[in-house]
Design goal:
The protein has 297 residues and is mainly alpha-helical. It has two domains: 67 residues, no CATH class; 173 residues, Cytochrome P450 (Cytochrome p450, Orthogonal Bundle), CATH 1.10.630. Helices cover 59% and strands 5% of the residues. It has 13 helices and three strands. Strand 2 and strand 3 form a beta hairpin. Helix 8 packs antiparallel against helix 9 and helix 10 packs across helix 12. GO terms for molecular function: heme binding; iron ion binding; monooxygenase activity; oxidoreductase activity, acting on paired donors, with incorporation or reduction of molecular oxygen. Keywords: Oxidoreductase.
Length: 297
């Protein structure tokens, strides 16, 4: 037998051993009933391009709470309102963590993220406290009413200006810029982009690329041994896009840190950036707290 035949036999034998071990491990765990699937691939082929329909069909066989294997990952699927209530309301603490996609992990900031970091992470609790105390209070939301009116007035003025100049106006880009300036005023107390600048177009494309990459099915998420190879190039593209985005945000944060002004008469003064700077100053007195610029990203 030549070397290629030996290699093929070795691969097939490895698949068989892995399938047997996975089956035994699957049966030993106290998991809901479900479909084991094929070696390595699990039930990925069964899910197909319309996962909601495939999961509904599987739920008729295995019940409203079932276990599936997506590649090498065990996934528990709840397919009824009662089961969703049990998970999201009654047992939310047990399910507070979430797996981090490889596209998000490529940015190496998931532990600093309010969305992706674990609820048991002390940093997540500190950032959540800042949000609850400083940002998302009723008083804070009421104080933003004037800001919302101002941003909408600027958008209307831009529409009138384009009409009088008889120039084309891209509604999607205008809406994106309006939303962006509202967020930037909330965070940095200033407009981030001019409505007529090309920066809005560039940032819109950049954010669109990141969202598309984050939502794209990545084979490395289901087959962890492929992560170092990045077969689809998603991690590399995310890293490049995030570097560009972080450079932009770091420039803005640097300006705010250097200014570090807080006008009591300005109702917009309590911004996210001010909260982060203040929290960082307080953290110097408490060595167990670490808050950096990554919080504001």
């Amino acid at each position: 037998m030549d070397i290629y035949g030996c290699l093929l036999c070795s691969v097939l034998l490895s698949f068989c051993i892995h399938f047997l071990l996975s089956t035994l491990k699957f049966k030993k765990k106290r998991l809901p009933p479900g479909r084991i699937g094929l070696p390595i691939l699990g039930s990925l082929l069964k899910i197909g391009n319309r996962p909601h329909e495939s999961l509904a069909k599987l739920a008729k066989t295995y019940g409203p709470l079932m276990t599936l294997k997506f590649g090498m990952l065990n996934v528990v699927v709840a397919s009824s309102a009662d089961m969703a209530k049990e998970i999201l309301q009654k047992n939310d603490q047990a399910f507070i963590g979430r797996p981090t996609p490889e596209s998000v992990a490529a940015g190496k900031f998931q532990d600093m993220s309010l969305v992706w970091s674990s609820g048991l992470n002390p940093h997540w609790k500190k950032v959540r406290k800042i949000c609850n105390i400083q940002l998302f209070t009723n008083q804070r939301m009421d104080s933003l009413q004037e800001l919302r009116h101002l941003v909408i007035k600027k958008m209307i003025a831009r529409v009138i200006e384009a009409r009088e100049a008889r120039e084309p106006l891209y509604v999607g880009r205008l809406a994106f810029g309006t939303t962006l300036n509202f967020i930037s005023n909330t965070m940095f107390s200033d407009d981030l982009f001019d409505m007529k600048s090309d920066g809005i177009r560039e940032l819109k494309e950049l954010v669109g690329d990141l969202v598309e990459l984050a939502l794209k099915a990545n084979v490395a998420d289901f087959l962890p041994f492929l992560r170092p190879f990045d077969p689809q190039g998603i991690s590399h593209r995310v890293t490049v896009s995030l570097d560009r985005l972080h450079k932009l945000l770091d420039d803005i944060i640097g300006q705010r840190v250097r200014r570090r002004t807080y006008d009591q008469s300005d109702r917009r003064g309590i911004s996210w950036m001010f909260c982060v700077i203040t929290a960082k100053s307080m953290a110097r007195k408490n060595l167990t707290t670490k808050i950096s610029r990554s919080c504001s990203r």
